[in-house]
Each structure stands twice: as structure tokens, then as C-alpha cells.
Write a structure and sequence with these properties.
Structural class of chain A: alpha/beta
Largest sheet of chain A: 6 strands, parallel
Oligomer: homodimer
Number of strands of chain A: 9
Distance between the termini of chain A: 37 Å
CATH architecture of the largest domain in chain A: Up-down Bundle
Strand order of the largest sheet of chain A: 2-9-6-5-3-4
Helix content of chain A: 40-55%
CATH class of the largest domain in chain A: Mainly Alpha
Radius of gyration of chain A: 20 Å
Number of helices of chain A: 15
Strand content of chain A: 5-15%
Shape of chain A: globular
């Protein structure tokens, strides 16, 4: 097992009717900015529950945070929050609203000339306004970590940042808030969470059997609950199990002491930035090719994953690995998530453009062995055409 | 799944040479009290590593905290710490030292007449001195939770308390510190951690498959690594895996949204209080009888546990349950942990004494169904004779 540091102070309030707990979680004298996305929370009752729980406080709101939240949009929220002297922000939505809010609270206190530097130049976050979340879309795990991914629309750049100061103070997870989600978002959420686990698990063994089994626990549960969630998104227990899997997939618990990959995410971000393909779908495109391309260095974990999660135990090692990757692809496709670039009408020219951008940015040494270079990215993407 | 709140802000620093991190984790101007037990840390080099890392700070020490730490001993530490105006406490040791330190930091700030009320009367902890830990004995999980169990030697009473203020600020887990542990303590630690998991798992199903699988992950890993740890306590990876299992067994992660039992612990505490039997051994005595006695209400989980952890899948339900309990007993016995009261020369008169004490204390409604009464405790203990 590798040395590690683990720290996650996010308080989770999980279950039915937990939104009412906002009353005790946010100081009574707080000036609150409520952030949200496209407005679905106004149709499904979540907005009303939130406002009822905040009653008595000074509340202002900022809606319209888009998927893959834009720096340009978020800076408007920063200006509004500063003007209104907000001292607590409440994100109500999915990963995009929460990621966007992490940037808002950091940018509100940023003293440099341009808050974009937090992303592009990794300028350190020295202070941030406290915030909490009400999660309505299980997927990214952002509700229980300190990471954030933001897109600059102008340049189509998608960058990440994180800081111990951008952990939510609390996150409220009420599975009933997911009942009105479109099937497309549920499928995306399942594939996103599933891939988060694989990025932290499908690397190489370091004698960490508990972490392996915990990762497999999430994979097995998503495999079981995912199709049920798509089928019947108003079944409480199904949605509760899916929701908790998505949180556990990226709250740091399964990654302690083990290597992680993240090349699939790094490459996938470009497909979202250039073509607006849903984040989870970019992962489903890149991952199978990456696993095939790196199957030699990932061999032991691929065999273990195939055996323990998909029951693949017949054939040569190569055959078992291929069967395992095919089972993974079939799982994604069963959720109606397409897995090739052609499915999204993206061709060779995008591969070239990503290579060009990576060259410009000097990208190198991706993956758990830091051995994925730009030429490898080109091959992986070509395999996904 | 049941509603739940999860909160655990303990920072974990895990791995080789992590004790040096004390230098950055404890403020440079802190007045530090270092607490420890019987002094083994002075023989195995841990004390020297700690003192080197604390160099430059005002450091005082309090040794001699016994197993099942005594209120009487701890109050001496409280007086010393107050006199010396200590503002940070560092526990170096196992669960007893850490539990004791939680009481010390709460008692230092307690404003009532008698700090024993924190335990006996559940007087609320309103303030506590910050503390950290250096764990040297994997077992109780105390390094990553806020709970504490303290014994009053005078009256042979063993009570627990906990507060959000008694989470360690950090815990350092260096598996190398366990290399010189006596085999007896390693065996105890394995059984303690294993039973912690069973107390949170062997109840009744509430459709929480991820929590079930995570609990089973710890059980399977302890089953695998435990015998290796006893055999070769200087194998780094083995001790690292055991150490992380023990922490994960009681840091709250596996208990979210599920019922818990804890009757085995409640009854076992009496055996330690009356006869000084090692805590883990009391669990190994009580648990098998409790499982047999409550096998009807625990049936579904017992069958699942038997199948997934011990591969028991042949025979009638009753046969499978008995085989599962026998496999658990055999596991404990394989670690040289005896499982009957007779093994410890304890007889019927102790059963009567525990019944008398429970009657005096008005104990009732133990277990996940709150259906274990004093007469049931008597039957369970009688089955363990």
C-alpha cells in the first residue's frame, strides 16, 4: 500500500425530507446566495423546500449555471454575490452547479487580477466563502469532495482545481429529489460514477485488498442498481443506493494508498469542450480504447475486475481481458450510452485538434505510470473512431 | 436505506515515516501533553520519533494509561495538563490511550463539579482541548471516531461517551509502529475489528447493498490478512492492510443508513469490568451465543454473511446458519482467542452478577430491534458458559 493522506470534513445529511435541515445547517443571520441550473428545481418542488427552510434569512439567487459550467457565467454570480455581501452560498443541483459554486466561493475571495488564474495557472485558493449543497443529480461526487471542473466558453478550455477550502460544509442528499430526472441524466450519472471507480481501481496492484474490494463493492452495486434506476427512477431505495454509490465513488475513500489513472477524464474533457458531448459519454467513448491500449500494464487489475465484477474466468488472459472490456461496453450501451466517436458524429479531424491542443499545452505523462504521451492519446482516440 | 448523518473530519496520515508530519500538524507554539500507556513506545523507537518531531515545542508527558483506561488515572492527567496550561494533547498508543485522551481533553474543559458525569450522566461536552493521535495498535478504530469507553476502577463500571468535539484533529498510522506488538494484542485487534463490523452488519436487511458489500470487504480482508499478521507481524503490507481495516471498521463509513446491534459490546464490557478479560476476548465469548440466540431475527443477514464471507451455501437455512457461526468461532480460535466463559474460568456466579448490575442500572431494549432484555442477556451468557 502507498502512503496517503485522507481528509474529508463534509457533513452528509442523507434521506427523505432532509432539506428541512438547512434551517439548522446555515446560520440564522447568513446572507445566502442560492445557485442553481436550468430551473428544474422550480418545477419539482425542490426550490420551494429550500426557500421554506431558509425562511428568515436574506436570500438572493443566481440561476442558469449551465452543464460544464462556464467561467463567464460564474463571474456574473461572483459579482452579484460581492455586491450583495453574501456570506454563505447554497448550491442546489448536480455536479455542474456544485462545481460552479466551488469556483464562485473561491473567486469571491480571490485577490489576484483574474480569477481564471485559479484554473489556468493553479493560483492557490487562500480563502473561500463557506457553502453547502443540496444534490439533485447523483453522478459526479462533487457534493463530497473539494474538486471542481470549469470551462471557459471563449477558448473552449476545460480545467480543474481544488482546495481544502472548497469542501462543502454540508451536503443534503434526498433521493426523492431525483424522481423527476430525465433518463438521459440518470444513465450519464451511472456511467460517470462507474468510471470514477475504474479510474481509481484499474491501474496496477499495490497489495491494497480492502481498497480493491471497496471499489468492487461500488461497481457491483452500480451494475445491479443502475438498470433499475433507469427503469424505475421513482423507486426510493434504488435511487438512494445509486445516489450513495455516486458519492462514495469520488469522496476519496477508495483511492487511499493506491495509484490512480484519470487519463480517460483528461482526454474526455476535450470532447466536451470541443463538441459539448455530455461528460459521462466522453468517458464511455475513451475508456474502452484506453483499456485495450494499456491492457499490458493494467493486466492484473483487468483480470481481477473481470472475475469479481463480471464473472469472467474462462479463456486465456487476453481473451478474459477482451471479454471484460466488452462486458463494460455492453453495460454502458445497455444504459443507452454510446461508446464510439462515430456515434456522436465526431471524426478524425477532432483527434487532430485534440493532439494540436495537447501539443500547444505541453501535455505529457498521463495515466498511473505517467507513460501516456500525446502519440498514445492519438492512438487511443483513433481506436474510438 | 434509513436516513443518516455522516460526519468525520479526522485527517489521516498513513504510512512509513509519517510520524515526522507531527511537525506540521501541531502548531509550533503549542504546549503539548503527550499521553501514552505502559511505556512500550520508549522501547520500540516511537517515543523518540515523536519527541524529535515535536522539537522546539513545550512538551510534557503523562504515561501509564492502562488498558480499559481508568477514570482515576485520567483525572491525574487532567490535573497535570491544567497546571501546565497544555493546549494540545497528543495520544501515542492504542485504543485505550486514545479513548483515555478523549476523556482528558473533554474533562479539562468540563465546568461541572465531577467530570465522571460526562460518562455516568451523559453530561454534554461543550468544549474540548484539541488533540491528535499516533496509533500503535490497530484494533478499536478510536483513531478515526469520536467515541470513548472509560472504566471507573472504584466501582468497576465501564461507560462510553462521544461528542463532535472529541474527534482527533489528525491521526498518524504508521504500520511500522506495530512491528513489536505481542501476538496477543494483534489477535485481539483482529477480533475487535471483525466484531465491530459484525455489530453493524449482522442485523436485518434495509436494502443497502453498498453498505453490506463494504462491510463484507472488511471481513474478507481481515479473514485473509489476520492470520498473516499473527504469523509475520513485521510484514509491512500485511500490517498496513490490517491497520486500515481496523480503522475503516469503526469510522462510520459502513454504518450509514443501516441498523446496528452493539449488544455484544454492551454485555462484553461487563466481563472486562468484572474480570479484566481483554475487550476483544469478551466479544469473542458473547458474539457466538448472541448470534445463535437471535438467529431468527438475524436470519437473512446471517445467511448472506455465511455465503459471501465463508462460502457456506449447502444445507438447510438452520444448518447454514450454524455452519456460519461455527466458521466465525473457528476463525477466532485459530487466532488463539478462546470463546467460552469456562476458558477464562468464569462461571454462573458472574452471569448472576451481570444480571444484578443490569437490573440495578435498569438496562433494557438492547440490540437492533431493541428486544434484548435482561432475561435474554442471562440466557446468552449462560450459552457461553
Amino acid at each position: 500500500m502507498n502512503n496517503f493522506t485522507f481528509y474529508n470534513p463534509v457533513k452528509i445529511l442523507f434521506g427523505k425530507a432532509q432539506i428541512a435541515a438547512l434551517t439548522s445547517e446555515i446560520p440564522a443571520d447568513a446572507k445566502v446566495l442560492v445557485t442553481y441550473g436550468g430551473g428544474s428545481i422550480k418545477k419539482n418542488g425542490v426550490y420551494d423546500q429550500v426557500m421554506a427552510a431558509l425562511s428568515g434569512r436574506t436570500v438572493t439567487e443566481f440561476g442558469g449555471i449551465e452543464p460544464n459550467p462556464h467561467y463567464e457565467t460564474l463571474m456574473k454570480a461572483v459579482n452579484q454575490a460581492k455586491q450583495e455581501q453574501v456570506n454563505f452560498v447554497l448550491a442546489v443541483g448536480g455536479g455542474s452547479v456544485i462545481d460552479g459554486t466551488k469556483f464562485i466561493v473561491a473567486a469571491m475571495e480571490y485577490e489576484g487580477a483574474d480569477a481564471w488564474d485559479i484554473l489556468a495557472k493553479k493560483a492557490p485558493v487562500k480563502k473561500a466563502v463557506p457553502f453547502g449543497t443540496v444534490l439533485t443529480l447523483p453522478a459526479t461526487g462533487s457534493e463530497m469532495n473539494s474538486g471542481s471542473v470549469i470551462t471557459k466558453a471563449e477558448t473552449k478550455e476545460k480545467f480543474s482545481f481544488g482546495s481544502p477550502l472548497t469542501f462543502p460544509k454540508f451536503s443534503i442528499l434526498d433521493p426523492e429529489t431525483t424522481y423527476t430526472l430525465p433518463v438521459r441524466q440518470i444513465s450519464n450519472g451511472i456511467v460517470d460514477a462507474y468510471t470514477h471507480v475504474l479510474e481509481q481501481y484499474l491501474t496496477y496492484p499495490v497489495n491494497a485488498p480492502l481498497q480493491d474490494r471497496m471499489a468492487e463493492s461500488i461497481l457491483l452495486t452500480l451494475k445491479e442498481e443502475g438498470p433499475k434506476a433507469v427503469e424505475n427512477p421513482q423507486d426510493y431505495d434504488t435511487m438512494a443506493n445509486f445516489m450513495w454509490c455516486a458519492t462514495m465513488a469520488l469522496n476519496g475513500v477508495i483511492r487511499v494508498g493506491v495509484p490512480t489513472d484519470w487519463a480517460t477524464h483528461y482526454i474526455g474533457h476535450e470532447l466536451t469542450a470541443l463538441h459539448g458531448i455530455d461528460h459521462a459519454r466522453t468517458l464511455a467513448i475513451v475508456l474502452p480504447s484506453l483499456l485495450r491500449y494499456k491492457q499490458e500494464t493494467k493486466k492484473e487489475k483487468l483480470l481481477q475486475y473481470g472475475q469479481r465484477v463480471w464473472g469472467v474466468d474462462a479463456g486465456t488472459e487476453d481473451e478474459r481481458i477482451e471479454a471484460t472490456i466488452q462486458a463494460t461496453v455492453a453495460f454502458f450501451e445497455s444504459l443507452d450510452i454510446k461508446t464510439t466517436l462515430a456515434d456522436y458524429e465526431v471524426g478524425q479531424e477532432t483527434v487532430k485538434e485534440i493532439v494540436r491542443r495537447f501539443e500547444e499545452r505541453g501535455v505529457k505523462n498521463l495515466g498511473e505510470h505517467a507513460d501516456i504521451q500525446i502519440k498514445d492519446v492519438e492512438e487511443i482516440l483513433t481506436m474510438s473512431l
